[in-house]
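Bug #77: duplicate submission created two jobs. Keeping one. Sequence:
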Amino acid sequence: MYTERFDKRNFNELRPMEAETGIVPNAKGSARFRIGNTEAVAAVYGPEEVKPRHIEKADRAVILCKYDMLPFSVPDRAKPGMDRRDIEISQVITNALNRAIILEEMPRAMINIRVYITQADAGTRCASLTAASMACADAGLPMRDLVAAVAAGKIGDSVCLDLTKEEEDFHEGEGATDVPIAFLPSKNEIVLLQLDGRVSKEDLKKIVEIGKEGAMKIYELEKKALKRRFSNESKS
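Kept job's structure:
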């Protein structure tokens, strides 16, 4: 049984969040997104020349994304360099942004995206995707919509939003199931849905619904951060 969350939040409550854009001076666009004790920083470069040339596409841009969890981001120092998980999350971010960015408007170009986890307490792929989406918008790339991502899941017999590492590691009863979800809100389109654990079809529907509710709150925060950035620019 899991009747009360470790951090006392309601089951449908997000952790405290912060979002800002334009934080990396030499990048075309950049953003920072923090949710609880998880923080991601993203920087976007391009559109630029495609390298290596064999990946160039005549009818659209290509996205080259690199996700990196910095060594000091977790209590047990992370190993430097990309491992299998980093490569997988890099691809997850790429796949979602392929749906969000209008790549056909930038043929024979490359969008270079770097995402760094500076602090980790679960939900790093969702925080990374959210930060990367804001950075792409900050770079002025043509987009169908922002991507809003959050992890939901089931702990014991309770459906929960925005799991922490402590909750992911919960082992009593049925344990924990983690479901990273990402949406294009204005399109009502899911661009990421992964499952780590077991869950019934009915519970998965509840998880997706609570995830969508949480993602809409993140979406509003993203829009506010971008409006604040462009408002500050217009005043300067």
